[in-house]
Design goal:
Elements (H helix, E strand, L loop, with lengths): L4 H7 L15 E3 L5 E3 H8 L14 H7 L4 H5 L4 H4 L4 H10 L9 E2 L2 E2 L4
Antiparallel strand pairs: 1-2, 3-4
Helix pairs in contact: 1-2, 2-3
Length: about 120
């Protein structure tokens, strides 16, 4: 169960890790095998995936965290509530900008990743 909206934002990058208990600042392991450090995702990447505003190239720190994320795994856990908070298009943009492979056709919630 997700305990706050802020960790939801980065489930995808991860953000970022849905079927377990989420505690900001702790390492989280989702039952499906997706791994990520929610605290780092929140502190390093949150501003790059918000619904509002333009796409902004992520920082080196954000990219460092994104490199440890299994994007296709995490994308499989994106819900409508997560999509209401973050831009899936920006999540994919951030991941790809950081050099992470997110295959076209991958479903992140209702968003289908386009070709590069």
């Amino acid at each position: 169960m997700i305990t706050s909206a802020k960790p939801c934002i980065l489930l995808l990058l991860a953000v970022l890790l849905v079927s377990g208990s989420v505690t900001p600042g702790k390492n989280i392991l989702v039952e499906a095998g997706c791994q990520s450090d929610i605290g780092n995702l929140i502190s390093k990447c949150e501003s790059y995936v918000q619904k509002t505003g333009p796409k902004i190239a992520p920082s080196e720190g954000c990219c460092g965290v994104v490199q440890g994320v299994d994007m296709p795994c995490v994308c499989g856990y994106v819900t409508k509530s997560i999509e209401s908070i973050i831009s899936m298009e920006k999540v994919v943009y951030v991941a790809r900008t950081c050099g992470k492979v997110v295959p076209s056709g991958t479903h992140c919630g209702s968003y289908v990743v386009p070709r590069t």
